Amino acid sequence: MKRNSFCAPRPALDYAPRRERIDNIFRLVATLTLRALALACVFSFAASPALCQEDACSKFRQTLKTTYDFKPSKLSEADRTAKSEQMDSFWTMVERNKEELLPCLRAAVGDPKSDAWFRFDGSNLLVTVDPSPGSKLEQIRQYAEVDLGDVDLRFWVGIIAKRGTEGFDVADAGARWLSFPKAEYYLPEHGAFKVDLLLGAFYIYGSMDEAQATPALLKIASDRSHPAREQALAILLFQATPESFRALKIANKVGRTDEAQSALLLLLENPRRVTPRDKPKTSREEFLKAFKAYVDGDGAPFLALVTQVPDGERDVVAVLKPEDVPLVRKVRRRMIANGNQHSFEFYKTFTEILMTLVWRAELIK
User: pLDDT (tens digit, 9 = 90+) per residue, 60-95?
Assistant: First the structure.
């Protein structure tokens, strides 16, 4: 994964000859030192594996301390460029000496005494060199704890949403986002499209399995003192599960006016649904093939169906069966995790499909 997690997009690197020589020397010395240590451990009968590992980690910690000694939001543009180069050198050192330094990196990222910014940036490095479930869990934990004023929010939301689609519980990060007073960013390649607090929360909670997201949203929506409880209620309305219907009825009664309660109940009792087409233009088999491909990372078959039949949602609700609902949910999660204005439009359409397939009046009584 490309390291690009500063609070603002990194400036283009502009190495001066002297700086480049210094960085090259730094990388060479670090690599040779670690390789020499490794060779000494291999050929020395006296050295124990634990001692050799400790020596490697000691040198690792020294480099970490001199590299991560700053707070990104407090740096000038020039200082940010210099520190970015130093962090690149640190990443290169670890990537070139993965076997020796991975245990050191994992321990340092998980150590609450380590530099706060390093724990965040280091968690990205950890997933890069070891993309295991354990590394990703550690990354999620560090993302939930980092000062959001220090990070590129688009990058942060994108990684969290990706982990959500992979089945990880990212509710703590979602709660952090909903509590951050400056939770917004822009998508310059989409006409400076603004991602605000609510839309960013949809990207996060919408990427999660509903079984994880619904109780987390209910906790926030039931807290009358939480500044984002209305946003949590709005996202719950889109979950489209029997559990979310029950959660909405519970949260709706906590500290809300009679008028607000009535308005929400109307939405719950008559959600937007899709009218099935009498003579479908697309078959169930075609939809299932396209949906499975989308979940596996190939969106071309789905986009082809959309091009052929722009109102294909009418065919979806006409031909799909109850056993297909879990697949529809997976597609919806992948769509919202794309994190742009188009993904939310698709998310809304798939919510209407799900409401058509699962909503029943008896579920909200």
Answer: 999 999 999 999 999 998 998 999 999 999 999 999
DSSP 5-19: -SSSPPPPP---HHH
The two three-digit tokens of residue 214, written as one number? 């619904």
The structure's pTM equals 0.85
| CA pair distance 250, 241, nearest whole angstrom | 14
State the DSSP code for 2: -
Q: Under a CB-based contact definition with an 8 Å cutoff, are residues 141 and 109 in contact?
A: no
Provide the 3-class DSSP secondary structure of residue 310.
coil
Query: Looking at 124-205, which runs of residues are DSSP E strands?
Result: 185-187, 193-195
Q: Tell me which DSSP letter residue 240 carries.
A: -
DSSP H helical segments within the chain, as ranges?
Answer: 17-43, 49-67, 77-96, 98-109, 116-129, 133-145, 153-165, 171-179, 197-206, 210-221, 229-239, 242-252, 258-269, 284-295, 300-308, 313-319, 325-336, 341-358
Residue carrying the six token digits 């959001």: 148
* Domains in the chain: boundaries: 17-151, 167-270, 284-364
CA 89, distance to chain mean position in Å, is 26
Task: List pLDDT tens digits, range 102-113.
Answer: 999 999 999 999
Lookup: tokens for 301: 């078959």
